[in-house]
């Protein structure tokens, strides 16, 4: 199966080249763009993200990207992979900022509950974590004992429907590490910064969606 | 299993990598890109790259250099050196680093630190605090490569950095830098107990046992080191190296996991 070219949405903040860099290493074609026209024509999308929720949503709106994204993802059903904040903005909203998200995922973004975190665990959650996969999916057909991913975030998802959660991880308590609902896919960790483990995830997204 | 990050810290000077002892001029240890490639192949947890001359030479961050380094980094990368504007932070991240490390800016451009955290999130801003032990007890904090004293002690400086929005503290002992004397556990512990964000211990590590100490006794969330990852043997021959996953598991992660549940 030939992988369709991937369009990486650039909201002009944070680290975006790393995603393209890893895709290139894997041999997949991708474009980084903030053009509404190109996004409206995309066949597969990645929404990367480092930054604050409100700032990112405002950037998407300011650049005129919300409408083409809505059309392409919510109406046309093109696969989208949100990474870290890029997954969080797929939700209805976040405790981080009083700004609406894209609302494609029945989930809210909440702050880590410091009451449920042990003394040695810090917020933001920063570091490598293992995941637990409730059932094999296209994104995680199998994980091995040494599978690990890099997380860096102060907020996490809280899904209405736990069936949407395709991988869990733990920081004080279990929270979603990855979600999948129809054409909407998201990971809380940074595959582009998780060595071969992350390469596997990006390869699966590029090839199987 | 509890994992902590083990982070090689690379110092750039005049286009090459150096390793210092107590913040001296340092000896040349190699080419940055080559070294980063080796660490990438070894699948290290994270890398810190500091341009240690930028502030004192009044230079801006070298964006092209960061782009080259990030191009070889399939792990998180923090970059520090000469950062004084939010626009520079933005360009550093756009070039492929996820964290911007500030030290002198804590004293000279505190508003930039808070604006950076507001815009990029606190997880993207690391406050680096260089400390020296005082003869009569207590510690002092420094900026500008250890040449300028801050008015605050390390705990106060770290607290203020967190208030400004830093999501992580890189705590560097100048006295232990490159000495193989072990981490300064007292200052690590006092700073780690005073702030809610992760503290990365740097300065003095000689082996994995020191990493364990920094986390167990010092309460650090992560450990960083320079010399032991670039030198080998008593004559300190340059050899880029990193503990194997099984060594880290046996001597660091498992003892920590056992300690936590005990």
Task: Describe the protein in words.
The complex is a heterodimer of chains A (209) and B (262). Chain A is of the alpha/beta class and 209 residues long. Chain A has helices at residues 17-26, 36-40, 53-62, 66-75, 85-88, 195-208, and strands at residues 6-9, 30-33, 45-47, 80-83, 93-94, 97-100, 107-111, 125-129, 149-153, 155-159, 165-171, 173-181, 184-187. Chain A has six helices and 13 strands. Chain A has a seven-stranded mixed beta sheet. In chain A, strand 5 (93-94) and strand 6 form a beta hairpin. In chain B, the strands form two sheets. Chain B has an eight-stranded parallel β-barrel, surrounded by six helices. In chain B, strands 13-14 form a two-stranded antiparallel ribbon. In chain B, helix 6 packs parallel to helix 7. The A-B interface holds A 13-18, 21-22, 25, 50-52, 55, 85, 114, 118, 120, 122-124, 126-130, 146, 148, 150, 152-154, 190, 192-196, 198-199 and B 1, 3-5, 40, 43, 45-46, 67, 70-71, 73-77, 90, 93-98, 118-124, 167-168, 196-198, 215, 219, 221-222, 245, 260.
